[in-house]
Amino acid sequence: xxxxxxxxxxxxxxxxxxxxxxxxxxxxxxxxxxxxxxxxxxxxxxxxxxxxxxxxxxxxxxxxxxxxxxxxxxxxxxxxxxxxxxxxxxxxxxxxxxxxxxxxxxxxxxxxxxxxxxxxxxxxxxxxxxxxxxxxxxxxxxxxxxxxxxxxxxxxxxxxxxxxxxxxxxxxxxxxxxxxxxxxxxxxxxxxxxxxxxxxxxxxxxxxxxxxxxxxxxxxxxxxxxxxxxxxxxxxxxxxxxxxxxxxxxxxxxxxxxxxxxxxxxxxxxxxxxxxxxxxxxxx
Length: 284
Prior knowledge:
Layout: E1 68-70, E2 83-87, E3 89-94, E4 104-109, E5 122-129, E6 136-145, E7 156-163, E8 169-175, E9 181-185, E10 194-196, E11 210-218, E12 226-233, E13 236-245, E14 251-258, E15 267-277
Antiparallel strand pairs: 1-15, 2-5, 3-4, 4-15, 5-14, 6-11, 6-15, 7-8, 7-14, 8-9, 9-10, 11-12, 12-13
Keywords: Signal
Protein name: Lipoprotein
């Protein structure tokens, strides 16, 4: 199990609720949209300390009926109702590194950390409480990565769905060096564990440009103990993870970093236009 107990913070501060769930109209077709473009000549492998103008991103929109919508445009760091969790990393809302002047979540993890030598993660994320998961949930963010994980076997975590109460358990969406996605399932259900998108990678994550990353979580009923979760890149299905353990997840975390760093643990990542909904979100 890859769950990092030390990253938990008291849940009392996460007690603020969110908007009521929207009705599900059954429409799985996302609206079109472009996740944005990058400045010419940028290098995804440049060190985080270099004088880099940063990625560009267009302002996002809040879909009607969304459970949660965070555009990071008011400059608050962390934004209202979110709690920042960091370990050997920094996280802040940075409006100076986007061409349109709007804010984006900026995460930098330190390099050279190896848990085989010295325990400790290199990760930063924002966490908040959401309504308990029923049967269908979508999480969308526009993501810009300077680089993919530096070695095979070191996974970078984007999103975490979890429940730390009596229905304890969770899972997290990760990316690997070969651009494929992985799912770390610590729901304590039968078959739980770690699984990855098989090679060859047809659709995967990319560094050096803005990517629309959407994560779908489904189960047949609110009492189902297993379901599936799909990953979409720019609206195209990348992989469908099946037989995934399910709980009444009531916390969402967004960010980036390595729970299990293996040496090349430095990274710089931006996230923007985060939306959580019970229907397909798309890239607008």
